[in-house]
Amino acid sequence: MAELAVAERQEIPCQVSVPWNVVFSVSWSSLRRRFFRSLITMLGVILAIAFLTYMMVQDSVVDALLEARIEALNLLLQKSGVDVLAVQGTDTMMILLISLALLTCLVGIVNAMFMSVSERIKEIGTLKCLGAEDSFIVKTYFVESSLQGVLGTTLGILIGLVVSVALCVGSYGGYVFQYFPYGAVLRAIAIALAIGSIISVLASIGPAYWASKKQPVDAMRVEE
Known about the structure:
Blueprint: H1 2-11, H2 20-33, H3 35-68, H4 71-79, H5 92-119, H6 121-129, H7 134-172, H8 175-178, H9 182-212, H10 216-221
């Protein structure tokens, strides 16, 4: 028996560091296996980023329409509640709404990932019993949370862009396409993508570290 154990240890070498491609494969498989729960997790990100994108795109479109200085268009803007005589730029209320959207996004991702870790404590214990290192657990949950955040951010940007343009067209008609601010809209999309991705990555650090510190014995003792 001792010789057999020695032979098995020689056949299965200790792997100190798991390659990132393996980590991505495991994380992606986990997201696919838990598709609907992952979708619920991403929903908070999608709504927050969609709201953020909607406000920035609409603000850019309205500024572009104001710069056109067309009397008929100014009447449409006034009917929509836009003060055509006010100085252009993002007002205090919009800054507050954007800040609330970002805070909601951050809290939503952190809460969702902690819930995900709590629901999978036994899975973490099993991985550790099979020899998974803390670094592998950290990488796996970090990548999984980041993927959820980036995918949610992308979907949120698409939804926010479509809704914003549709509402602007409904209010201002063909003027929107005639004076559409492509540069400002692309800049708004880039800002939303960067903010959503950065928040997702930062929010995934805590849950990933917490998951790696679970002891196998304690994890396996938890009742489902």
